[in-house]
Automatic annotation (TrEMBL):
The protein's name: Glycosyltransferase family 1 protein
Domain of life per record: Bacteria
Signal peptide extent: none
UniProt-recorded Gene Ontology molecular function terms: glycosyltransferase activity
Domain Glycosyl transferase family: 200-363
């Protein structure tokens, strides 16, 4: 039985962590599965869900999301030691930071003839597409190109990411394969119950005519929530029935709270923090909004599609592969609060149209983006023989 070591930077549950969790739990009977991560460690939601699934996991104490030369050096050493101890046949890297450190550790071990390991890397959106200083973007492009030689296969979760790799000449195109994220339909609460639970969470009674605009995601700059707040401010001037709910937590919270206060949005915008099984609450929303400035292939958009919610999303990353503008939802340009507001207003003003689009989206997600398909195609990558 082949042994697979999944490496990921954080155990805070986000899209990349959900991807690892889905694969690790689905393939436990076919492979010996081990997962290792850094920041948040055993306290992160990924660790808790792996423990519940009786999956084996390790923590990498010095592995942090932010660049830190000393911590990064120590983390690379810890990864190398873990690889030597576990002796995996395959290392599956997830996220840019761990892809750099993990592939270097595997390459060094290979050079010293300690272990010949197949290295696979899944790109959950190229980090150099994030809102970063130009020098840091260049660094990440160089790092991706430099470490690509140590990777046997690079999985892109969207065609957009594969096209970006080709444009930036990250690695020979034959190294890349596109495997879309797959979704197992979440257990959704009935709309009325979901709405009541959300009302209890935000500690605010919701009037019958209140229309809920929702978004789910970690509070990172990549999620573009400042543009959603700009849209909320514009819409609130004309419509007092709206309530914007953002489910998630993260380092951008202080800045978002400043914007909410400055724009006097306290009565119509709520940052709930993390909510366990947040997707189950999606039926509470009258409209789902993804305001991201960078995405791979958004699980939350996929979940909103499965819930039959009308969707407005930014045209970034793999979003246009999920949402065909005017067919399964509406797309807006990134970093444009005014246009986002206009798209939201139009969707709310035409409920029959948005209901039709939402029904098409639900059909699309169930037929084209299944978890079984993702697992099958990834398994085929694992079973390929080393070159």
């Amino acid at each position: 039985m082949k042994k697979i070591l999944y490496l990921i930077t954080q155990s805070e549950l986000g899209g990349a962590q959900k991807y690892v969790l889905d694969l690790a739990t689905a393939l436990q009977d076919d492979f010996a599965i081990i997962v290792a991560f850094g920041e948040q460690g055993a306290e992160g939601d990924l660790a808790k869900k792996l423990k519940s699934a009786k999956a084996v996991y390790y923590t990498i104490p010095h592995l942090k999301r932010r660049i830190s030369p000393l911590n990064d050096l120590l983390a690379a050493w810890e990864i190398a030691q873990l690889i030597k101890r576990i002796k995996p046949d395959i290392i599956h890297l997830n996220s840019t930071k761990i892809s750099i450190l993990g592939s270097l550790a595997a390459k060094i071990l290979h050079i010293f003839a300690i272990r010949n390991i197949r290295v696979i890397y899944t790109v959950h959106g190229w980090v150099f597409n994030e809102p970063l200083p130009g020098s840091l973007k260049l660094f990440y492009k160089f790092a991706e190109k430099f470490t690509a030689g140590a990777k046997d296969k690079i999985i892109c979760v969207s065609a957009y990411d594969r096209q970006t790799a080709r444009k930036e000449k990250i690695a020979p195109l034959e190294k890349f394969v596109t495997i879309h994220n797959g979704l197992a339909r979440p257990d959704f609460l009935p709309p009325r119950e979901a709405r009541q639970r959300l009302s209890d969470r935000i500690k605010t009674p919701l009037a019958e005519n209140t229309r809920l605009i929702g978004s789910i995601g970690n509070l990172y700059p990549t999620k573009g929530y400042e543009y959603l707040l700009a849209a909320a401010a514009r819409l609130a001037e004309k419509d007092q029935s709206l309530c914007f709910v953002i489910i998630g937590e993260g380092p951008a919270r202080p800045e978002l709270e400043k914007i909410i206060k400055a724009k006097k949005l306290e009565k119509i915008v709520c940052l709930t923090g993390r909510i366990a099984d947040a997707p189950s609450l999606l039926p509470a929303f009258d409209l789902y909004v993804c305001s991201s400035v960078k995405e791979g292939l958004s699980y939350t958009v996929m979940e909103a599609m499965a819930a039959g919610r009308p969707i407005v999303a930014t045209a970034v990353g793999g979003n246009p592969e999920l949402i065909a503008d005017g067919e399964t939802g509406d797309l807006a340009p990134a970093r444009d609060g005014q246009c986002l507001a206009e798209k939201i207003a139009y969707a709310l003003a035409h409920p029959d149209r948005t209901k039709t689009l939402a029904a098409r989206a639900r059909e699309k997600i169930s037929t084209e983006f299944s978890l079984d398909t993702m697992i099958k195609k990834t398994r085929e990558i694992y079973e390929e023989k080393s070159a």
